[in-house]
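Notebook, bench 3.
Goal today: get a predicted structure for Peptide/nickel transport system ATP-binding protein from Sulfitobacter undariae so we can plan the truncation constructs. The sequence was checked against the plasmid map this morning, with no discrepancies at the termini. Length recorded as 321 residues. Pasting the sequence as submitted so the record is complete.
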Amino acid sequence: MTAALDVQGLTTRFATRGDPVTAVNDVSFSVQKGRILGLVGESGSGKSVTGFSVMGLIDAPGEISAGKVLVDGNDLRALSDEHMRKMRGNKVAMVFQDPMMTLNPVLRVGDQMAMAVRVHRKMSKTAALEESRAALEAVGIPSPEERLQAYPHQLSGGMRQRVAIAMALLHSPSVIIADEATTALDVSIQGQILAEVRDLADTTGAAIVWITHDLAVVSSLADDICVMYAGKIVERGTAQQVIDHPRHPYTKGLLDSIPALHEPGKHLPQIPGSTPQLSRLPQGCPFRPRCPRASDICKTVPPADTVDGQTVLCHHPLERT
């Protein structure tokens, strides 16, 4: 079965005054239709750059130097700029952390959505507005006809994010990439949107990549999880495998630092140190300076160890319990 999204050996570098900095280092993953992949890691791990690389939105001094991005079997990196522009929003769409990166503050919501529809398909504005209304309704927006007449500033943050998700759905794309799409929202609104996203994946068959730093979010949303650190995927598996049986010490540290998993009033464990500068990565395993299981062998590149489809890049992986 062909995956809706198949990323193979994706590498993205940024030119500096010194040596190029590799922000995405030989990243590979795939997402089947109707499934949600959680791409998780701390700030600076390369998650967002991976999403922008898939969309072909890397500008100078950045460059996608290697890899393939296959959507329904077609390599996006082999397309011309003009053809790629036609693919964005049509076959592959992105939802940004700040919906105002998507929405024009001086245009009504309906005008913006109708314009997005008519860029890819020839139809009357009336028909485009009807499709826009249906998309707003699909993401749980009440009174969608009224919302089409509103300006973005007249909507709440949660409502604007729903509009951004609705715009991503206008052309029934095969792939949707959501970059920290609910981070700025309060917990109750976040929960509603996550439930709607799960329902959208089930009903539309879209493959969704959900980029976040919050493992607690993806534990209830994602089917599969990839954990990123310093530009590489260090662990991947089903959500149940990664959450219930983490094998990389970094994944275990992220899970241990979730407040909801600990008794109130008790000391909250933390991962010591911070993510390394990509221009100054330590020798061997990049997590070595922060890892409680590190030894001299960790100064060499860790191998990939796979058990029951769960893969980890580590010299000393945790045993499955």
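The chain has one domain: 3-91+171-313. The longest strand covers residues 21-31.
Flagging this for group meeting.
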